[in-house]
């Protein structure tokens, strides 16, 4: 009788210390509670516990991702939901060559979610909130001349991806680059015909997966030195680094503002096709 009492106390102590682990052992061993012993008596025990437990599982919350469909663009590879902290990558591709995409990601409180982009690919980290894509488009017409600017007639419409032609061949700007020139051809408010004394300018690609903005350099030619200086601009040059381009079609936009008159500007657009030729022979 004394031995049985001590054994019962020992079992209670083990269960108290081990807790949930006791259920796991009984569950993994099968119906161990019904094993009987023949050591001088009926030592059968009841083992009807199911061994269940939550195991301390962590709940992960999922939030929705939405956008408005449009004929102007196509959204690809965007999931309908994601977990908090998960990186989400997707594509927004314009359906026409001259469509410019402006994308913002907003949470449920209309706060902007930080997003990075490379070409038509966008990536963001999912917040603890539902989000929506706010996409706007800007359709830019093909302009060979506008206000006081005109594209040069001999500008290339096709360029090649640069590859070394022989062992040790290296890329050298500007001679290995491709140049697009826009000439000042109109009379400028605040200046003489064909000259722009005060100006700001920018150039961008609408198809960064073909010609990224990092491949574009913009400069102007003046009446004194022929390159960027302090005198009047007579033309603007866009230099495209052919080591950074990929095959496809890209729309290039040049915008020049006349600093003498607010709102007086010119915007030219051209389409460039990039082809894959000139590979180095083995």
Structural topology:
Layout (H helix, E strand, L loop, with lengths): L1 H17 L1 H9 L33 E6 L5 E4 L4 E3 L3 E8 L4 E9 L4 E2 L1 E4 L2 E5 L5 E9 L5 E2 L2 E3 L6 E3 L17 E7 L14 E7 L10 E7 L10 E8 L7 E11 L6 E11 L7
Parallel strand pairs: 1-9, 12-18
Antiparallel strand pairs: 1-3, 2-4, 4-8, 5-6, 5-9, 7-8, 10-11, 11-13, 13-16, 14-17, 15-16, 17-18
Main-sheet strand order equals 3-1-9-5-6
Spans of at least 5 consecutive residues with low confidence: 5-47
**What's the end-to-end separation, in Å?**
93 Å
| Overall average residue pLDDT | 78
Please report the total strand number as a whole number.
18
Dominant shape: globular
| Rg from alpha-carbon coordinates | 35 Å
Structural class: mainly beta
How would a textbook summarize the main sheet? 5 strands, mixed
Helix content: under 10%
SSE arrangement, N to C: HHEEEEEEEEEEEEEEEEEE
Beta-strand percentage range: 35-45%
Count of alpha/pi helices: 2
Task: Describe this protein's structure.
There is one protein chain. With 282 residues, this protein is mostly beta strands. The protein is 9% helix and 39% strand. The strands form four sheets. Strands 3-1-9-5-6 form a five-stranded mixed β-sheet, with no helix packed on it. The longest helix has 17 residues, at 2-18. The termini are far apart. Mean pLDDT is 78; it is low at 5-47.
